[in-house]
Amino acid sequence: MTDMQRGRFITLEGAEGVGKSTLLPVVRDLLQSQGIDVVSTREPGGTPLGEQLREVLLGTQEPMVAKAEMLLMFASRAQHIETVIEPALAMGKWVLCDRFTDASYAYQGAGRQLGARRVSVIEDWVQEGLQPDLTLLLDASRETSVARTRRRRAVDRIESEGDEFFARVKQGYLAQASADPERVRIIDANPALEDVTAAMAAVVSDRIEQWSIVLEGC
Ligand code: TMP
Which residue's CA is minimally distant from atom 9 of ligand 1? Predict the structure, then answer.
């Protein structure tokens, strides 16, 4: 199989309460409406082992040190890449993932202040060059996020962090976007979700068109 026949890897990112869970099915439906075979998955999680690690990561009562948190995120990711993501891409399926390594840069690198360098060392080892083809970064003010999070269930271990932590998470995400603006597209998630949906659909449709033009040119 040539590289051109591989599926595309799309990730969705953003701090808590930006509307990610509402918007992910919108992207999935858009891709499926174009006849694309999509595997929709998430991190941490996406495999039986990953889902067990997710429960530990989000639910443990024991104070978790930042390095343990980062390594467990990458343990989940390693299992996910080898058993779900890579096989799907190799079969020509597209993978739509609710969070990936940009979240490790934002939450562990910036939020927990481990630094981008440590994340990048583990990323190189675990991912062996695998990167998303497109990342949709939903960016909202803290006020919008808090208002949307309040409407939901009880908050988990990471969601219950304070404003300073989430200010660093936001900066971590924006740093990822400025380091790779072609891959990471920032979507303003402050407007009403219908408007965010329309903006996001436009970005995805544009990118699908660009990719099909490249394919036709081959
Ligand atoms: P969510 O996917 O339901 O939003 O929850 C996952 C939580 O895990 C969220 O608080 C972000 C956090 N997370 C990290 O801290 N690092 C990571 O690498 C990933 C994938 C998620």
Answer: 158
For residue 206 the two structure tokens come to 């544009």
Q: Which atom of ligand 1 is nearest to the CA of 104?
A: 18
Backbone φ, ψ for residue 11 (5° rounding): -120, 155
Which one is predicted more confidently, 44 or 153? 44
How remote is the CA of residue 209 from the centroid of ligand 1, in Å? 30
pTM (global) more than 0.90: yes
The CA-atom distances, in angstroms, between 89 and each of 24, 26, 81 are: 19, 21, 10
Q: Is the Cα dihedral 21, 178, 89, 205 positive or negative?
A: positive
The mean pLDDT value of the chain amounts to 94
Q: Which helix (H) or strand (E) holds 12?
A: strand 9-13
The Å distance, Cα 159 to ligand 1 centre, comes to 9
Is residue 13 lining ligand 1, measured as CB closer than 6 Å? no
Does residue 3 have a pLDDT over 60?
A: no
Query: Is 107's C-beta closer than 6 angstroms to any atom of ligand 1?
Result: yes
pLDDT at residue 1, as a whole number: 46
Instruction: Tell me the pLDDT band of 212, cut-offs 50, 70 and 90.
Output: confident
Q: Whose CA is nearest to atom 7 of ligand 1?
A: 158
